[in-house]
Design brief:
GO cellular component, one term: plasma membrane
Organism: Ahrensia marina
Structural class: mainly alpha
Largest sheet: 2 strands, antiparallel
Subcellular location: Cell membrane
Number of helices: 13
Protein name: ABC transporter permease
Strand content: under 5%
Distance between the termini: 18 Å
GO molecular function, one term: branched-chain amino acid transmembrane transporter activity
CATH architecture: Orthogonal Bundle
Helix content: 55-70%
CATH topology: ABC transporter involved in vitamin B12 uptake, BtuC
Shape: globular
């Protein structure tokens, strides 16, 4: 059985290799499919920080995913129509610059995660799950009743946003942007996990009382992790909306939160590349089985059940040694 670190390298190279082979073979659809898996994996990495390291079972991470998407949609739509978002008391205009949009998405989703965390982390167990779910559904229904930005029909963006020096309309170049971000975030999460903060967070997950007795505040540790987790998921939402050039209220739905959690369970909870493996498998099943049957989720459910029953560490736990990898 190979080490988890080596397995992680193989996964990263397979994803990169798939996109490059598709580019050589002139298969833009396959590149787009791989890009989608990369972006969803990024959302999973965000949730995995809260779930795997902090023990926070959140069914509301679609709130941050949707906020990131709408940050992109709102800014880009105003840039396209040349209308300001706000004129008084100061002027705020739209933009089609990806770095600026990412910054806004990260700030908006992290602030939202901080507020939700402040309220929900005072509870635990099923109550925490329900509070996070409630916040996500609140934003879902708010977006439906927001006619200025499409309401229930969503909001279309006609041209993908720009990145300095690159043609983002070229599928392989946009994939490169998303893949680079995923690798950077995974590296950052790895460093964070093995830092004193990460070790304290893991300790709070196992026994909050013991962490408190050594002078640390479990609430603050979990709140920080939840906020960072929300920021990462919000960034993924902005990229996902840019990929599709469309944003809709379904990004806020509880089904989206559930799918992100499925990525983690399939790949392995608290495994660095668990969300990457899970998201890739999910996209493969959706593409292959979705063409055979409208009820492909049944097969996904069977696979998920087998993973839960027979591979507690997810697919990575079944295929690689249990050591935790850095990157």
């Amino acid at each position: 059985m190979i080490s988890e670190r080596f397995f992680n390298y193989i996964v990263a190279l397979l994803i990169l290799g798939t996109a490059l082979v598709a580019w050589v073979m002139d298969e833009p659809f396959l590149i787009t499919l791989t890009t989608k898996a990369v972006i969803l994996a990024l959302a999973g990495v965000g949730l995995n920080l809260a779930l795997g390291q902090g023990g926070l079972i959140s069914l509301g991470h679609a709130a941050f995913f949707g906020l990131g998407g709408y940050a992109m949609g709102v800014l880009a739509s105003h840039a396209q129509t040349f209308t300001p978002l706000m004129e008084a008391p100061f002027l705020i205009v739209g933009t089609n610059s990806m770095p600026v949009i990412w910054l806004v998405a990260i700030v908006a989703s992290s602030l939202c995660a901080f507020v939700i965390g402040l309220l929900s982390l005072r509870t635990s167990g099923v109550y925490f799950i329900m509070v996070t779910l409630a916040f996500g559904q609140m934003l879902y229904y708010f977006s439906i009743s927001w006619p200025a930005y499409g309401g229930e029909d969503g909001l279309s963006i006609y041209v993908r946003n720009s990145f300095p020096g690159l043609n983002t309309l070229d599928p392989i170049q946009f994939f490169g942007i998303c893949f680079a971000i995923l690798m950077l975030v995974i590296y950052g999460v790895s460093r964070l996990t093995h830092s004193p903060f990460g070790l304290a967070l893991n300790g709070a997950r196992q026994n909050a009382q013991r962490v408190h007795t050594v002078g640390l505040n479990p609430f603050k540790l979990q709140l920080a992790a939840f906020t960072i987790s929300g920021a990462i998921t919000g960034l993924a939402g902005a990229l996902f909306a840019d990929l599709n050039r469309f944003v809709s209220p379904t990004m806020f739905s509880w089904q989206t939160s559930g799918e992100i959690m499925i990525f983690i369970i399939l790949g392995g909870v608290a495994r660095l590349y668990g969300p990457v493996v899970g998201a890739a498998l999910f996209i493969l099943l959706e593409h292959w089985l979705g063409g055979l049957s409208d009820f492909w989720h049944v097969y996904l459910g069977i696979i998920l059940l087998c993973v839960v029953l027979f591979a507690r560490g997810g697919l990575i736990g079944a295929l690689a040694k249990k050591e935790r990898a850095h990157v």
